[in-house]
Amino acid sequence: MSTTNSFRRYSPRWLTTTALFMAMNVVLSAVSIPVPGGHFYLCDVIICTAAILFDPVAAFFVGGVGSFLGDLLFYPAPMFVSLAAHGAQAVIISLCAHRLWPGRRYAGAVAGVTLGAVVMVIGYTLGRAYVYATPEYAVLKLPYEILQAAVGAAGGVLLCCRAGLREYFERKR
Question: Alpha-carbon Rg of the chain, whole angstroms?
Fold first, then answer.
């Protein structure tokens, strides 16, 4: 990595946009819809959107650290599960969206959010079973976890690829 690339990647603009998306993730962690066995959150839309737009480091900060901070503030029990599951989800989406098929960016984003959703659902299911010491609780929450991942994946792809957010971000770099 050249010095110019490193400087551009970790510039004040990079830091500011990463922090802005982290803050949006924390705010959406406070907004939930009650469902049997817990809550349904819309923070996956922000995580998927940021992961499609940003490099893997920024994606990890938005997905993993942002979710960790949101849980720390509002519901601390699963905060380390959120750090691992959403962090891995964001990194996988970012890597796929930027490196899987460079000429077919839409296909890379769709593959990334699909793989990221699977990783997030598995991570949360295993993490909940461990944190709450009951696999039944994790299984009860599983359909809502899948729905949350699907809504986040669809929302992120629509915002970035169909609404033109990706092109806007690339023009502003």
Answer: 16
Average pLDDT, rounded, for the chain: 87
Residue 40's alpha-carbon distances to 6, 62, 117, in angstroms, are 37, 19, 15
**78 neighbors 37 (Cβ within 8 angstroms):** no
- Torsions phi, psi of 76, nearest 5? -70, -15
What contacts 150, CB < 8 A, 6 or more positions away? Answer: 117
pTM score above 0.85: yes
Structural contact between residues 126 and 85, judged by C-beta atoms closer than 8 angstroms: no
Length of the chain in residues, anyone? Answer: 173
> Do 114 and 106 contact (CB within 8 A), yes or no?
no
